[in-house]
Amino acid sequence: MRIVLDALGSDNCPDPEVQAALQAAHEFGDDILLVGPADLLRDKLEALNGTTAKVQIVNAPEAITMEDKGIKLALKAKRREAKNSMAVGIDLVKSGEADAFVTAGNTGGALATGYYRLGLIPGLERPALTALFPVKDGHTVVLDIGANPECKPEHLYQFAIMGSIYAQKVLQIDDPRLGLLSNGEEAGKGNQLIKETFPLLEASELNFIGNVEGKELFGGEADVVVMDGFTGNILLKSSEAVAKLLIDSLREELMSSFRTKVGAALAKPAFGVIRKMLDPAEVGAAPLLGINGLVFIGHGRSDAYALVSAIRNARKAVEAKLLNAIQEAIEDQLAQAALPGES
Amino acid sequence: MRIVLDALGSDNCPDPEVQAALQAAHEFGDDILLVGPADLLRDKLEALNGTTAKVQIVNAPEAITMEDKGIKLALKAKRREAKNSMAVGIDLVKSGEADAFVTAGNTGGALATGYYRLGLIPGLERPALTALFPVKDGHTVVLDIGANPECKPEHLYQFAIMGSIYAQKVLQIDDPRLGLLSNGEEAGKGNQLIKETFPLLEASELNFIGNVEGKELFGGEADVVVMDGFTGNILLKSSEAVAKLLIDSLREELMSSFRTKVGAALAKPAFGVIRKMLDPAEVGAAPLLGINGLVFIGHGRSDAYALVSAIRNARKAVEAKLLNAIQEAIEDQLAQAALPGES
Question: Which strands, in side-by-side order, build the sheet including B224-226?
Fold first, then answer.
């Protein structure tokens, strides 16, 4: 197996990436293709005494950064002769020289580059950004978290198919429970999009448990939850912001007196569980579903340990033949939709 | 001033309501009209030695409960001869016998009852459910959190006017900063609704600071944030669920060993700040904006202390002539919209 790692992804790149490439090559025995400025990466590897045949450097002198947006980003993602690490790395997946691409960089950049260079799975209407949300006793697959601010019911249906297959094949959840995010659990609740999506999911072969609200989502009552990308993005960012507000407020109070400081020191192991819940390393990376190739996006805050987790996720998807499984499921869906009298 | 308190609102009603009515009458020197089953309320008041001329019981033998939904709820809210405490209480506001109605009961019930019995402010297209979100260093007015799952740009514009006036008149924030919740801060970000609402807010006389995300909202960077009711409801419920997940997980871990238990005991004052942030009493109650009368809705978990806070909020709105201010602002908006060449 050959995994491409974007050396210019994480907030502190390329050091975490160089370290992660070495660790992953060692741990998994795979080839890691590290994409970025060749000279710099060679120096970094040598400094770590890490010149191993298992980590191959692929030169890409440029980067897509967090500042790249709009047309500038589209051009960087699209140009045939693009020399940024995402374009070069994703081209390796396209040519079959590698099995999956992993980055902790600009999410919109990875989406655009994957979309333009690999295209969509045939029959699929929209790609979806996926996230693994920390919930009670585990994680829940949530999509779309931002690729499509405007969605149709058929898009959400296809997200549901892809998310369910990902949960089944890669997270190894039998018959994953699927929820539709809405402003009420009852079947009639929701905006127009939800009301029209509900019957599609109900008529499908997916394990649809109905509408879910925040309580069910964070309570871990569904394995996969679908929504449009506008709602998903607000859900993701607000959840992060609430968690940050609570933790910051608690930290500030704990440090405000000697007594609470001592208490905090004694209680430290308990705070670990919160840190772990919000740690990028626990999630590793989530796939960009619908793109005709495996692209995994990790958190910008990823360190080497988190990047190794990200590579581990990508490996599982390759081993589980995730892409084939989604391709087949979309073919099935289209074939069924074409049958007369079926709905 | 005369405030109506729904005696059949909170999860533990009517005891917190009876206590709150007495406390509020004492604290504010106002008449409190306590609406519910007269015999029961009289007994409860007497048991508290609380027979004061300041607390007047108004008989309403029935209640709108959390189980009331759909058509059943609409009928209870609408019927002229309705005998439930919300209908009877809101009729007192309609007839001018009272200045404001306060309940900690079914939000949808208060919305429907207010809407059917008081109607909308002339020229206003949709009422909005409002919440005060705990944010860094204070609270932010958020609307709509669920009255309108489907909104048009003009609705969000009117929500922005109403929310800004509420922040200014009742929360006494000069020139409140207004944000539009979106999936990105840049002006071009958002779904169709956001893209069309942005220029309306920008051209208005409101202090529009642009699109905001979860980070800005919970960071306290806006005083008022508007959104459609579907998104707002998901934002509200997910935020509550994330907070609950974090607190439950932390509590569980703190109780898991002797050492962390001791730490938790010492650090207890620090946890108070979190409890306070999420405490209904800190917020009291938020208004139903757009209804042609003052209706305040508190959290179902409200105790007597929280209900007194709710009554305090309602009093401030009466004193600030909130309803008149919104009526005038909507008139102004319509007059401006009618001017040729203006937009």
Answer: B55-59, B31-36, B2-6, B100-103, B295-298, B285-289, B128-135, B138-143, B224-226, B177-181, B207-212
Output the CA torsion A58→A62→A68→A69 (10° steps): -70
Q: Measure A151 CA to nearest chain B CA, in Å.
A: 9
pLDDT of residue B341: 55
Q: How far apart are CA A90 and CA B7, in angstroms?
A: 64
**What tokens were used for A295?**
């692209």
- A268 interfacial to chain B (CB closer than 8 Å): yes
What is the reported pLDDT for A342?
A: 46
8 A C-beta contact, residue B58 and residue B34:
yes
Evaluate the CA torsion angle A246, A227, A233, A331 in order and state its sign. positive
* Structural domains in chain B plus CATH codes: 2-124+285-322 (3.40.718.10), 128-254 (3.40.718.10)
Residues B163-181: pLDDT tens digits?
Answer: 999 999 999 999 999 999 9
Q: Are the Cβ atoms of A183 and B229 closer than 8 angstroms? A: yes
Cβ contact, residue pair B231, A231, below 8 Å: yes
Produce one character per residue of B288-304: b if its CB has 16 or more CB atoms within 10 Å, e if not.
Answer: bbbbbbbbbbbbbebbb
As a whole number of Å, the end-to-end CA separation of chain A is 40
Which position has the token pair 């495996």? Answer: A294
CA distances from B167 to A235, A286, B163, B170 (A): 25, 40, 6, 6
Contacts of residue B217 in chain A, CB cutoff 8 Å? 238, 241
What distance in Å separates the CA atoms of residue A33 and residue A20, rounded to the nearest whole number? 11
Q: Which of B107, B266, B274, B275 to mutate to test the interface with A (most CBs of A within 10 A)?
A: B266
Peptide bond into A144 cis (omega under 30): yes
pLDDT in tens, A215-253: 999 999 999 999 999 999 999 999 999 999 988 888 888
Q: What is the pTM of this model?
A: 0.92
**CA contacts within 13 A on the Cβ side of B105:** 33
Smallest CA–CA distance, residue B336 to chain A, in Å, is 31
